[in-house]
Write a structure and sequence with these properties.
The chain is α/β, with parallel strands linked by helices. Helix content is 49%, strand content 14%.
């Protein structure tokens, strides 16, 4: 198997998706993506997080890579290689900013040296590791072949030789007034050592350091540049080889290695992101995915964006679960306000999208559907430019979604049609849900209209629960059970003495 990518199981000539998907904001995936790419601007990772996979084989390819990376030895080897390549790029970036040619050439040599060392070391480490992922095995084979090739082996040897040759250069500088003279070094004594030895007997305790510290900046000043030119004249052959080296090897970087260096950051960024959550005891798993079966489930799962915030604040993360079997397709979520319904809806969307990226998902165990598209219908502020009211805008947006959705889509409906009356919300909600049922699409439908939960055999009612001894306390746990919104209202009314009987007794007084 020839290696071409650590992210994709086969050559893909399609145009990469570069725009953020429209549902990212609703599902808080924009927060997750921003955290993942922070500090990694040089790798341009955003398009990878905007590009879901659509085949089980493509997802499995990434799972296999991640299972290898979850071995500490493999992760360490890849991380060391990535840091060495980062150092190489910093040297190259510095070389491009420098004014003097000879200094640019020397930093270029340092960049190539870092590259050669990192590739050589990486080949040795991968050769000792037990790799199972086809992607990593193919990468190792490519690196072994490349390390022995006419493109790399002579480059590495020439780089080491030229660095050693430059390191052996010595010279003497004589400064008299404004005149600087550079001569070959012929073994003159180091007078600084003699001066220190002479005055060492007068040192009795720590003293202030009055030495002048030179400014530290990468570029040379004109005096240093002229000295370097004089040194280059003394060692003309060596510096001529450095200039020729710089000219010949401008395209030294192997394209495949460069691509791996960028793509592997996709995995490293995500593993680094979820590490604190795993350390806090939260579970992640490699979900089983399917493009045919819509019998899905997840155990002990959670909203990844919210969990990140809560763990950072050392607060408790509440986990939930769900499942759909047989003809079940729609989770109708109801219950008291601020009870975790929207969080559950976001979690459902996040799970399916992260699964489509081939990444571990929150949860102890999960089986998910590989959707062709994800659609969200969340509340929006009125836009004066559209000249539409809130309810009209909701109808316009759901019409667009239903026009584009297929039976392989996932829909997240959150408090839709809450801006109208209960009667109209029931009427429109019934019509919309009937369309979704006809599509046979997977859906989470968060609503205050309890009647929608029992619309057909495709719908499953889930209710956000409250504490048994105090209905005003939310548990943020959701359970499969019949919708009972009125029961919550009655419990709260009883708690505050607002039931019909209680009010009659108070009025009678």
């Amino acid at each position: 198997m020839a290696f071409h990518s650590i992210l994709f199981d086969r050559e893909d000539s399609s145009t990469p998706v570069v725009a953020e998907p429209p549902f990212f904001g609703d599902l808080h995936l924009d927060q997750i993506a921003s955290a993942l790419i922070a500090g990694r601007d040089q790798y341009e990772l955003a398009p990878f997080f905007y590009r879901p996979l659509h085949s089980v084989e493509a997802v499995r390819y990434r799972h296999q890579v991640l299972r290898d990376l979850e071995q500490e030895a493999v992760l360490d080897a890849v991380s060391v290689f990535a840091h060495a390549m980062e150092r190489m790029r910093k040297h190259l970036a510095l070389a491009r900013t420098l004014h003097y040619a000879r200094q640019r050439q020397r930093w270029f040599l340092a960049a190539v040296s870092a590259y050669c060392e990192s590739v050589g070391s990486f080949v040795e480490q991968l050769s000792r590791l037990e790799l199972r992922a086809p992607g990593f095995i193919a990468l190792r084979d490519h690196l072994v072949s490349y390390a022995q090739s006419d493109a790399f082996a002579p480059l590495a040897a020439e780089t080491r030789e030229l660095e050693s040759e430059l390191a052996r250069i010595t010279y003497a500088i004589q400064i008299k007034g404004n005149h600087v003279k550079v001569d070959a070094y012929v073994g003159e004594p180091d007078m600084s050592e003699e001066v220190e030895q002479t005055f060492a007997k007068f040192r009795h305790a720590a003293v202030n350091d009055h030495r002048v510290r030179f400014r530290e900046y990468p570029d040379m000043n004109h005096v240093e540049a002229q000295i370097l030119e004089l040194v280059a004249k003394l060692h003309a052959d060596t510096f001529a080889r450095l200039e020729a080296y710089w000219t010949r090897h401008r395209r030294y970087l192997d394209e495949t290695i460069g691509r791996f260096d960028r793509e592997v950051q996709f995995y490293l960024a995500y593993l680094q992101y979820i590490a604190p959550l795993k350390a806090a005891g939260l579970a992640f798993c490699h979900p089983r995915v399917s493009t045919s079966s819509k019998e899905i489930h997840a155990r002990e799962t959670f909203d990844l964006a919210l969990a990140t915030k809560l763990v950072d604040e050392r607060a408790t993360v509440v986990c939930n679960g769900f499942y759909l079997t047989d003809a079940e397709r729609i989770l109708v979520v109801s219950g008291p306000n601020n009870g975790g319904k929207t969080t559950f809806a976001r979690m459902f969307g996040q799970l399916h999208y992260l699964a489509s990226l081939g990444l571990p998902v929150p949860g102890r165990d999960a089986r998910l559907f590989l959707a062709d598209q994800i659609f969200t219908h969340f509340e929006r502020e009125e836009d004066i430019e559209t000249l539409r009211g809130k309810f009209e805008d909701e109808l316009y947006r759901i019409h667009e979604i239903l026009e584009r959705a297929t039976g392989d889509s996932v829909l997240i409906m959150n408090e839709s049609f809450g801006s109208t009356t209960l009667r109209d919300a029931l009427l429109v909600g019934t019509e919309v849900m009937s369309r979704i049922i006809a599509l046979d699409a997977l859906c989470v439908f968060v609503t205050f209209v309890d009647e929608l939960a029992s619309l057909s055999d495709s719908t499953v009612s889930m209710v956000s629960t409250v504490a048994a001894d105090d209905p005003t306390v939310r548990t943020y746990k959701l359970m499969r059970k019949p919708a009972d919104g009125l029961a919550y209202a009655a419990a709260i009314a009883a708690k505050h003495g607002l039931t019909y009987d209680a009010l009659r007794r108070r009025i009678a007084r």
